[in-house]
Amino acid sequence: MTMPTTTTPWTLAELEAAIRAGWSAGTSEPADTSRIPWTTENPAWGQCDITALVVQDLIGGDLVLSDVFHEGRQEGYHWGNLLPGGVLVDLTREQFRRGEVVTPGRIVKRPPGRLRRRWAEYQLLRQRVIEKLGPLPGTIELDGGRQLSYTDHGGPGAPLLALHGHFHNGRTWDRLAAGLGPGWRLITLDQRGHGASDRAAQYDREGYLADAAALLERLGVGPAVVLGHSLGGVNAYQLAARRPDLVRGLVVEDIGAVVDTDLSFALDWPRRGASREEFLTGLGDAARFLGDSLREYEDGWGTAFVPEDMVVSQQLLNGDHWADWLAVRVPTLLVRGERSDCLSAGHAREMAARRPGVRLVELPAGHVVHADDPEGFGAAVGEFLGRL
Fold this sequence. Notes:
alpha/beta; 5-stranded antiparallel beta sheet; 8-stranded mixed beta sheet; 17 strands
């Protein structure tokens, strides 16, 4: 399989400029500033660790750790990045102005979860970069080297993780992100096998939940409100049931506690087109909901997922999930499209009736409520979040 070409909305030079603009005494390492004060004449002083982390968040690759010696004695450590293409990037080397010797670096693994130290400074630098560049696409690397892509829309508000349905990706939530405003920090995940995230060997329930948990733990934003559509909706309420430490509220869009759907029709779609327009024409009626899920490959345009993966994923999603639904103990908004072919009115009402703390809203829409009625969906979600 040929891989898609990927781009970022900014260059490395623009990222470097945004990071430099975010440096201050408040983001500098206290152990360094206790010896030598931070000044605007040497803005990189004490910034290497969190700078390397932000670069890795956004570009991926490895962290590189070096030893720093001054006058024959080790004085500390220095951090840089080895990008996926093998390019070594060091945005803070200029801080050494007293004849320090920096040894060749060694690759080190990033510790999982929230940083034990310098967490506030790291979050502050990330937020300043977002304010300069806008929503930031980033990656996290899981065991085995598989990468997940996400977008952090930033802001000072409480965290909200949004999980898309089959065939879609994090871009499906762009309109919701714009409408929520600064009160909520929307983070969208391209789930395994979708969008810019890598394919996975398995598409089972445990795998999807582990991915969402890994992202929340890496960003250190749990417990968060988790919102999900269809596949993402089941993932959201199962995460709330099985990892209550990570979820404080739940929005489930048009999916039930019992799921039985067949996606094999996707196997009939064309695999490539010479242009985006040609591929969309070949998709027929499906083109209306796949516009954000296309990518340019070396051999033409195609979907940002493998149809066979989607069929398997849906088969493993099907089943009776009442036990998970009933185990959730956080406030929940259940949104149903009145024209939905996935969630019946009766089943939605049973879901709301069998568990306390569930509010059911039905809107004049089909299965993809947030696309068919974005104003109504945004208003329902906004009102629910306001109650939290």
